[in-house]
């Protein structure tokens, strides 16, 4: 976590060059810039007041530092995973995925599509929408699930600035959807990756328990 908080563009890029071809590094760094620009640099912020871009960057770093994943398409998707849901950087929703596909390829666009929730105007529709969302992620395969695990780990780590209601929602959602997804994906991967995912699972369980204790006190 400390390494992630101290990461800037130069250090991020150096990490990529240690494991990836220069052409792939250039493409990931294009996505890095698209995410930074798309989330408004300093205009769009998180609950703790930091610029929103720090979140997708940390999600990419979870892939690299915690899961040892340097798949360029997965890193690009991590950087862009909120770009359609939360911004108009690639235009309206119906056009955004086509533009992402043209720029980064079908695989990246498929990842981003699966990780983007549909708009929901009425609160009573949200439960069903969220159920479809998590179902779609699991149906896309283990790599999409792994992207969601990285996203959720960072959100859990960062939720100490959230309201009690939001913390409770995050913990309940993590227990009902994310943790089962994490266990399921361990049967779809092997070796070191399975151990890395189990480590992520343990960290999420620990954060949930701590938050539940804080909420109850």
Compact description:
With 217 residues, the protein is mainly alpha-helical. It is built from 12 helices and no strands.
Write a structural description.
- There is one protein chain.
- This protein is mainly α.
- The chain has helices spanning 2-5, 9-19, 22-38, 54-66, 72-80, 83-86, 93-104, 106-115, 126-140, 142-157, 164-186, 191-216.
- α7 runs antiparallel to α8, α9 crosses α10 (142-157) and α11 (164-186) packs antiparallel against α12 (191-216).
- The chain is globular, with a radius of gyration of 17 Å.
What order do the helices and strands come in, and which of them pair?
Blueprint: H1 2-5, H2 9-19, H3 22-38, H4 54-66, H5 72-80, H6 83-86, H7 93-104, H8 106-115, H9 126-140, H10 142-157, H11 164-186, H12 191-216
The overall pLDDT average reads: 93
Largest sheet, strands/sense/barrel = none
Apparent shape: globular
Terminal CA distance reads 26 Å
Give the ordered list of helices and strands: HHHHHHHHHHHH
Report the C-alpha radius of gyration, rounded: 17 Å
What is the number of E strands? 0
Strand content bin: under 5%
Low-confidence regions: none
User: Treating each run of at least 4 consecutive H or I residues as one helix, how many helices?
Assistant: 12
Q: What percentage of residues falls in helices of 4 or more residues?
A: over 70%
Question: Which structural class is indicated by helix and strand composition?
Answer: mainly alpha
Labels describing this entry:
217 residues; 12 helices; mainly alpha
């Amino acid at each position: 976590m400390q390494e992630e908080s101290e990461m800037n563009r130069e250090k991020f890029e150096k990490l990529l060059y240690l494991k990836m071809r220069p052409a792939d590094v250039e493409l990931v760094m294009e996505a890095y810039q698209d995410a930074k620009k798309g989330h408004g640099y300093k205009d769009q912020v998180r609950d703790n007041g930091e610029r929103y871009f720090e979140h997708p960057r940390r999600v990419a770093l979870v892939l690299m530092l915690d899961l040892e994943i340097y798949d360029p398409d997965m890193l690009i998707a991590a950087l862009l995973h909120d770009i359609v849901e939360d911004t108009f950087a690639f235009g309206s929703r119906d056009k955004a995925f086509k533009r992402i596909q043209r720029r980064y390829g079908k695989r990246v666009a498929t990842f981003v599509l699966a990780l983007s929730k549909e708009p929901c105007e009425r609160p009573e529709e949200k439960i069903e929408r969220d159920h479809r969302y998590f179902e779609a992620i699991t149906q896309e395969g283990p790599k999409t699930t792994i992207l969601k695990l990285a996203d959720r780990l960072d959100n859990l780590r960062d939720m100490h600035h959230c309201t009690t209601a939001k913390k409770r929602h995050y913990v309940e959602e993590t227990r009902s959807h994310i943790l089962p997804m994490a266990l399921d994906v361990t049967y779809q991967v092997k070796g070191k990756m399975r151990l890395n995912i189990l480590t992520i699972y343990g960290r999420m369980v620990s954060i949930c328990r701590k938050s539940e204790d804080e909420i109850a006190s």
